Amino acid sequence: MPDDEAKNPDPLLNSADAAAYLGVTEAWVRRARCNKKLDCVKVGHHTRYRRSVLDAFIEANTDVAGSR
Fold it and tell me: Where does 2-60 sit in CATH, by number?
């Protein structure tokens, strides 16, 4: 995988890989996509997620202690 990362620093992940990356279920990823919480890329009939989009989602939803 490190060699693949050097070639493509922003890989497209399938639903299973995106779910594993976020630590959630595939069903959650699909619901988030349908609810417009996660942007996706359609490749034919396949749905893929850019890792940079997942990273941005994590940053946008990180709750900093004392910020509320």
Answer: 3.90.105
CA atoms within 13 A on the CB side of 58: 12
Digit-coded pLDDT (tens) for 39-64: 999 999 999 999 999 999 999 999 88
Q: Where are the domains of the chain?
A: 2-60
pTM beyond 0.85:
no
Q: From the CB of residue 2, how many other CB atoms can be counted at a distance below 10 Å?
A: 5
Which tens digits make up the pLDDT trace of 4-27? Answer: 656 778 999 999 999 999 999 999
Nearest to 38 by CA among 22, 10, 46: 22
- Rounded Cα distance between 7 and 10, Å, is 9
The two structure tokens encoding residue 18: 């995106």
